[in-house]
Write a structure and sequence with these properties.
D-Maltodextrin-Binding Protein, domain 2, 2 domains, about 325 residues, 6-stranded mixed sheet, alpha/beta, 5-stranded mixed sheet, single chain, about 15% strand, ABC transporter substrate-binding protein, about 45% helix, signal
């Protein structure tokens, strides 16, 4: 199922406006995002602040829940660019497609999930998870792999030291926890903060801070699309402007800019989440996909026994455009 961004009217208006100004070659870009999340704030800010417009690009965002579905949309030409976890491109690379998928710009550089405890915890220690029921993310996805990696680094064996639940669909994890499943849960924002505000749980740790830097969410496209250098360079330049703006502006300004994408979320909550993600540097500060961070990603996948090939960074990542705009 595809969930279209409600700003289509604004998109059309922008195209008409640019045409009226004499900029006739406006390129509409179909972008598929794996989720609608404040974790992706620089993308939405870039659209709302007109950075993509300045590059002659009209970005039409479609939310396609599930990494496999987003990747399918990219491979079938349903979208031009996909915003998804870098691990997905590694899975596809093992299938040797005729038109390989290439990662070209990074949006987030840490895990975006938080550990939420059902009960209030004083002086949290990871050993407190032993003997409890932990409601994790979907098996094989980066959130779950990162979560298990962090648990192991803190002396917790996910298969032996606790009861690990990972068969709940991504969209239903919050509801499962709210209905009484699990003592601890791994949640993205703003759900983690909403649970805190409603007294349903307490954020006790950040998987992003524990895991360190990895190319968690990146923009990728097919190799053939990279041939449109004007498109990819313009997109990457707009993204870099947005990344700078998100860190240079106040959390209040950022929250106001991206609020149209979260109509049912209180502005103060959006601001809180933006600040939390900025404080732990979850938003990448430039679009370059660093090789060392990529190796960290591979290590997480190896630990989860999900790496069946020996990925070649030079084939999976094209940093030409990102390096050029950062100059």
């Amino acid at each position: 199922m595809k969930v279209k961004w409600k700003g289509t009217v604004g998109l059309i208006a922008m195209i008409l406006m640019l045409s009226a100004c004499g900029k006739e070659e406006v390129k509409e870009v179909q972008l598929g995002e794996v989720a609608r999340s404040i974790f992706y704030a620089p993308l939405y800010a870039g659209i709302e602040k007109g950075f993509f417009e300045e590059e002659g690009l009209a970005i039409d965002v479609t939310t396609i829940p599930g990494g496999d579905k987003t990747m399918t949309a990219l491979l079938s030409d349903g979208v031009d660019i996909a915003l998804i976890g870098a691990e997905t491109s590694i899975y596809v690379a093992g299938q040797n497609p005729n038109d390989p998928v290439v990662n070209f710009a990074q949006l987030t550089q840490t895990d975006g999930t938080f550990l939420v405890s059902r009960e209030k915890v004083e002086n949290f220690d990871w050993n407190m998870l032993k003997g409890t029921t932990f409601l994790g993310q979907r098996a094989g996805g980066m959130p779950q792999m990162a979560g298990e990696f962090v648990l192991k680094n803190n002396g917790i064996n996910p298969q032996e030291d606790l009861t690990l639940i990972q068969n709940v669909d991504f969209a239903n994890i919050p509801n499962a926890f709210a209905s009484g499943t699990g003592d601890f849960v791994q949640l993205f924002e703003p759900t983690a903060s909403i649970f805190e505000e409603q007294g349903m749980g307490t954020v006790v740790a950040s998987f992003g801070e524990e895991l360190g830097a990895i190319p968690y969410t990146v923009f990728m496209t097919k190799e053939s699309t990279l041939g449109d250098k004007e498109l990819i360079e313009g997109f990457t330049r707009a993204l870099y402007k947005a990344q700078n703006w998100v860190y240079e502006s106040s959390a209040t300004e950022v929250a106001k800019a991206i609020a149209p994408y979260f109509e049912d979320t209180d502005l103060a909550l959006i601001e809180k989440v933006v600040e939390r993600y900025r404080d732990q540097a979850s938003y990448a500060k430039d679009p370059i996909i660093d090789e060392n961070e990529f190796e960290n990603l591979l290590q997480v996948m190896k630990e989860a026994n999900k790496l069946e090939t020996d990925p070649d960074y030079t084939k999976l990542v094209n940093r030409t455009f990102a390096e050029e705009v950062v100059k």
